[in-house]
Specification:
It contains 4 helices and 8 strands; from the N terminus they run E-E-E-E-H-E-E-H-E-H-E-H. It has helices spanning about 40-55, 85-90, 100-110, 125-140; strands at about 15, 20-25, 30-35, 40, 60-65, 70-75, 90-95, 120. A 6-stranded mixed β-sheet has the order 1-2-3-5-7-8, sandwiched between helices. Strands 4-6 form a two-stranded parallel sheet.
Length: about 140
């Protein structure tokens, strides 16, 4: 399990730990690392957003979600929406390594209608590069 001490991004400015996740806020990127062997339900997702809201409420952010391969994501969780959080997201990247998570990610993406770009990646580095590309396009506009 990841902890602040052994996480590769331990020098990030803002960190929040909830029962289900380690959330790192690195500038305009919110990185949510879902813990191993936990159930992710609507309630857990709401708790994670509430835990970071005061840190991000005035920012537009990119959201990176990295579930552990043993994280159990309930069926209702893929439909969870927090209107406040959705309204500040620039884009969302999901780092998916298991077939079960990939199936849920595909359902999540196809049911989204809010216009926030969402992509699935196998590696965090690729997601961060995508965020950099989106940031550069934003700067050109």
């Amino acid at each position: 399990m990841l902890t602040i001490e052994n996480h590769p991004y331990s020098d990030v400015l803002e960190k929040v730990i909830t029962p289900t996740a380690l959330v790192l806020i690195d500038g305009d990127v919110v990185k949510t690392y879902l813990n191993a062997d936990v159930d992710i339900s609507n309630e857990a997702l709401e708790e994670n957003v509430e835990a970071i809201w005061d840190l991000i409420k005035n920012r537009r952010v990119f959201h990176l979600v990295v579930p552990d391969s043993t994280t159990l994501i309930t069926m209702d969780a893929h439909q969870y929406r927090n209107p406040r959080f959705e309204s500040i997201k620039k884009a969302e990247a999901l780092i998916i390594k298991t077939l079960g998570h990939r199936i849920l990610a595909n359902v999540y993406i196809t049911t989204r209608k809010d216009g926030c770009p969402i992509r699935v990646f196998e590696h965090e580095k690729d997601a961060i590069e995508w965020f950099d590309l989106l940031r550069a396009q934003e700067d050109e506009a």
